[in-house]
Amino acid sequence: MLVSGKSVKTGQLADSLHGLNVLETAVQERETMREMAREFEQQLTAVQVASMDPLTLLTNLHGFQVLGQLWLDACQQLAKPASLLFFDLDYFKRINELYGRSEGDSALKTFADVLRIAFRESDVVGRVGGDEFAVLLTGSSAVDVAGVRARLEEMLDERNATVHRCYDIQFSVAQVEFDPLRHKTVEGLMEAIGHVRGQGSVGF
Fold first, then answer.
1. CATH of the domain spanning 47-196, picked from 3.40.50.300, 3.40.190.170, 3.30.70.3040, 3.30.70.270
2. What is the share, in percent, of the chain residues with pLDDT greater than 90?
3. What is the pLDDT, as a whole number, of residue 200?
4. With a cut of 50, which residues of the chain have pLDDT below it?
5. What share of the chain is helix, strand, coil (3-state, %, to 5)?
6. CA of 97: how far to CAs of 17, 92, 101, 103, 110, in Å?
7. The pTM is what?
């Protein structure tokens, strides 16, 4: 604020204006993210039935691709990074064979719950195949996969101890950092993770 009778140095005025500009930019970015989140929620609600996996209540492959693309576009607009983590359960077929389909479904729901709790609301978590799950990390570059694995294993151990299963839920994980020029879309990112895993594609 300018006060009559007092002078303000040019450098001080410039610093104040710069501080205001930084604050305004941060506020605008937060408001933009809020507006995008509201828009995403409206769009997801419109296709919720078709986009949700009824067993785990996560988004299915279609929902993951739709919601993931919206967030990828937002990340590019705000010059933020993104990464894809891809999980599949080890020995899942054996669980079904030894303990029955209902026990296999229970293992899937447990793993889905752990993923839902372990990641942020801004991350996109989905069941994209029979025993395959994907997490799009928004605003994050490559993460420490070993750290993610250790955290999830600790959470799964707690669940296993609670329900006294005759087996451990084990999983494999792969990661690809999003490159807009190389991958372009969520589908391109998932194709890349498929190549990393030696499959070339993912999905039901």
1. 3.30.70.270
2. 51
3. 42
4. 1-4, 8, 200-204
5. 55, 15, 30
6. 68, 9, 8, 10, 18
7. 0.73
